[in-house]
Each structure stands twice: as C-alpha cells, then as structure tokens.
C-alpha cells in the first residue's frame, strides 16, 4: 500500500469515503464556477448590446 493509504489507516479514516466527498466537492465547485461564468458572459453581452443600442440611437438622430 502507498503512503496515502497508510496515513488514512493510521488515523482510522476511510480513504474511499474521503475520496467520494472530495469528488463531490470538486464537482460542485466546477459546476458552480461554470454556471457563474455563463451568467457573467450573458450579463456582459446584454450590457454591451444595450450600450450599443443607445449609442446607435444617438448617432442615427439627424
């Protein structure tokens, strides 16, 4: 067995339960980050779109 397993065995910890919790946390972290980036992208696109509309409205006035 490796050092990692010996460490967990010494402290009477279940390595596989720890690994599953770690993977669930990583999945949660990655999912949250992905949704945040998508939301931020949509928000910034809308700001640029609306600023563009206001800009063109000012330019088109003759």
Question: What's this entry about, in short?
Answer:
It is found in: Membrane. The protein has 62 residues and is mainly α. The protein is 87% helix and 0% strand.
3D structure, described in words:
InterPro entries: COX14 (IPR029208). Pfam families: COX14. Its main location: membrane. The protein has 62 residues and is mainly alpha-helical. The chain has one domain (14-60). The chain has two helices and no strands. It has helices spanning 3-10, 15-60. The chain is rod-shaped and about 65 Å long. The model has no long low-confidence stretch (mean pLDDT 82).
Shape: rod-shaped
Structural class: mainly alpha
> What percentage of amino acids are in beta strands?
under 5%
**Number of DSSP E strands:** 0
What count of domains describes the coordinates?
A: 1
Helix content: over 70%
Alpha-carbon distance between the termini?
A: 80 Å
Largest sheet: none
Order of helices and strands: HH
Per DSSP, the total helix count is 2
Pick out the low-confidence regions.
Answer: none
Overall mean confidence score, pLDDT: 82
Q: Give the C-alpha Rg.
A: 25 Å
């Amino acid at each position: 067995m490796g050092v990692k397993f010996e460490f967990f065995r010494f402290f009477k910890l279940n390595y596989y339960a720890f690994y599953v919790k770690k993977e669930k946390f990583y999945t949660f972290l990655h999912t949250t980050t992905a949704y945040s980036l998508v939301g931020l992208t949509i928000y910034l696109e809308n700001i640029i779109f609306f600023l563009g509309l206001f800009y063109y409205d000012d330019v088109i006035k003759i």
